[in-house]
Amino acid sequence: MTAVRTVLVSGASVAGPTLAHWLHRRGMRVTVVEKAPAPRPGGHAVDVRGAAVDVAERMGILGTIREHLTQTSRVHFVGPDGRTRAEISPTMDTGHGRSLEIVRGDLARILREATPADTEYLYGDTVTALEEGPDGVHVTFRHHEPHTFDLVVGSDGLHSTTRTLAFGPEEDFAHYLGALISISTVPNHLGIDREAQLYNTPGLGCGLIHSPRFEGAKAVFLAHETEPGGLDRAPEEDQKDYLRKRFTGAGWESDRLLEELAQAPDFYFDSVTQIHMDRWHRGRIALLGDAGYCPSPMSGQGTTLAMVGAHVLAEELGRHTTPEPALEAYEARMRPYVRANQGIADTGLGFLAPRTRLGLATRNAILRLGPLLTTLSRLDTRVARAAEAIDLDAPAPQDPPRHA
Ligand SMILES: Cc1cc2nc3c(=O)[nH]c(=O)nc-3n(C[C@H](O)[C@H](O)[C@H](O)COP(=O)(O)OP(=O)(O)OC[C@H]3O[C@@H](n4cnc5c(N)ncnc54)[C@H](O)[C@@H]3O)c2cc1C
Q1: In what order do the strands lie in the sheet with 204-210?
Q2: Which of 59, 251, 285, 316 is the most buried (most CB within 10 A)?
């Protein structure tokens, strides 16, 4: 196998531009193909935590990220009357670790701006076929001319096309966690300021989140459901119908939030799903971020995994003269880190939407006992530990001698 000089990266959100930055620093030429017609602003809040903070610092963007924080500093768990039953501060200021919350679109832009000017971005296109040959991976695009690259990296998210083309159907790797989630932009009709309000009934959660970085606020719905029943792929109207069936009359502001969904410019609905794979590479095709190891929104660690994974992958490609040992080393270093961070999701789901009345009362009672005794503080500690659980400078296991 020959060395890697040209790389196609599919997906320009978090993982893709981070990888493009680091590959360029190692002298490789990068093309990024993105399905969206243009960079997408906005979106939900994501977290740059633990080792990902170091990655951001090494990229020289930590200061810029700090200038764009969501500033959402409290979560109020409210009752049907809107009165606060319990409240917490997100990880940011509990002293349990390094955590920076930022809107996904802001982070994607900052990361993209950190890629050099000669990085080629192909917006509004997608890979339609991948064929590996002796001289690299021959890539067919929907719109652009076909081209051969030394390496292809899929960073195209939970529903990755690269994964489907190179590894098989999503069902083979999807691990459903038993809940459906929706998040959309709505007016801030409660006039809340830099806080989130979350209302629960057993198995359900709905809330309103405000940040000065959002247009308005975000309405969130979370519902336990034994099977997704195809709803994750259903037409938008069916998904909204489902939410109406589950949440109408649930209490608090649920009916108002459901009404607002009709005008939401960015309605999002999906299953809470992780991606579990035995291998993240095949030949000269590799997966990165949610495409290879989505931990689900319930872990809050997807962004961190995407940024750290990009750093490790680029480092290993720089260390080895051929892709195979580099990709093996990437997997060996990332696997324990991914396992630790995917492992948090169940606790996160149980915390945000307890299944039973008793679970709900217990959560709120524990939260009222104070920060040192709270479930959150234990969850926080687990989140912080998992986010730090990789040594960015460690040599890969059985690392061969470095090449100049
Ligand atoms: C509702 C919700 C809440 C979340 N909350 C948090 C949180 O609190 N904290 C946190 O850290 N993470 C959170 N996440 C997860 C986080 O958004 C992801 O883990 C993170 O964005 C992963 O980055 P990525 O680059 O791997 O994938 P993505 O951000 O999913 O990006 C994939 C990119 O690939 C593009 N793409 C898709 N298909 C193709 C194709 N065929 N060809 C070309 N391009 C394609 C997409 O348009 C997109 O730009 C949340 C996710 C959701 C959905």
Answers
A1: 84-88, 74-78, 195-201, 204-210, 217-224, 174-186, 268-275
A2: 285
SS3 205: strand
The model carries a pTM of 0.95
What number does the ligand 1 atom closest to the CA of 156 have? 34
Q: Is residue 104 lining ligand 1, measured as CB closer than 6 Å?
A: yes
Measured in angstroms, how far is the CA atom of residue 299 from the centroid of ligand 1?
A: 13
303 Cα: distance to centroid of ligand 1 (angstroms): 8
Q: Is residue 192 part of a domain?
A: no
Residue 346 Cα to ligand 1 middle (Å): 19
- Asked whether residue 296 is domain-assigned, the answer is yes
Does residue 49 lie within any of the structural domains? yes
Which letter does DSSP use for residue 298 in this model? T
Task: Give CA–CA dist 182/384, Å, rounded.
Answer: 26
**pLDDT tens string for the chain (404 positions)?**
668 999 999 999 999 999 999 999 999 999 999 999 999 999 999 999 999 999 999 999 999 999 999 999 899 999 999 999 988 876 543 445 689 999 999 999 999 999 999 899 999 999 999 999 988 999 999 999 999 999 999 999 999 999 999 999 999 999 999 999 999 999 999 999 999 999 999 999 999 999 999 999 999 999 999 999 999 999 999 999 999 999 999 999 999 999 999 999 999 999 999 999 999 999 999 999 999 999 999 999 999 999 999 999 999 999 999 999 999 999 999 999 999 999 999 888 988 999 999 999 988 888 887 655 555 656 777 888 899 999 998 875 555 544 43
206 within some domain: no
CATH of the domain at 133: 3.50.50.60
Task: State in Å: Cα 156 to ligand 1 middle.
Answer: 8
Classify residue 368 by its DSSP letter: H
Indicate the number of domains in the chain: 1
The domain containing residue 53 runs over which residues?
A: 6-69+103-173+275-346+382-388
CA 314 to CA 25: how far, in whole Å? 9
Whether residue 297 has its Cβ less than 6 Å from ligand 1 = yes
